[in-house]
Automatic annotation (TrEMBL):
It is a multi-pass membrane protein. It is found in: Membrane. Keywords: Membrane, Transmembrane, Transmembrane helix. It comes from Triparma laevis f. longispina. Its main location: membrane. The lineage of its organism: Eukaryota, Sar, Stramenopiles, Ochrophyta, Bolidophyceae. This is Uncharacterized protein. GO terms for molecular function: protein transmembrane transporter activity. GO terms for biological process: protein import into mitochondrial matrix. The keyword Transport does not apply. Pfam families: Tim17.
Amino acid sequence: MDQSSDNSAPIQLPNLGNIRLGTVAPSLQIKSESEPDYLDFDIKGRGMWEKTVASTGWGYLIGTLGGGLYGVKTGLSSVPNSRFKVKVNALLNHGGRGASRAGNAIGCVAMIYSLTEGLLDKGDVEQFSPVQSPALNPALAAFLSGVAYKATAGPRVAALAGCIGAGTVAGTYGMTALTGMKFANTNFMFF
């Protein structure tokens, strides 16, 4: 059959602009537009893994900078010789040692804290507590982080580290309440 000899007219479709979807939708099992459609519930902000990675990175960076500065200070004060090369060597040795120790320590604590807080949020621990406070999960996470980080040093040291962590969160919460600021754990750790 020859395509060029086909002179049929194009198909005319009816005018579909007058059809109301509200009347046709129930027959097609489509919800009406008045009902909200909740497809995916997502809390605004970062997820647990993003917070963990960000807190670990920030903790390592802050610890490295602070530990490096402290190491430089101790390196300058502990040089027995006044020769320039000896001073530079002591400065670099102490600065590098302090930076690596503090960076690793704060990065590990930040990682443990973020994971613990995320798991407490997922487990909805606040519903089992008689105290309803926005600082409950961060304080419990800080206590558990201190205990986990210092667990190898013995139970007394671990409990002390946990109390220091929980006390830090409680102090931060108290200061934000006194100053009228909002206590939020959306940034680095609980700050």
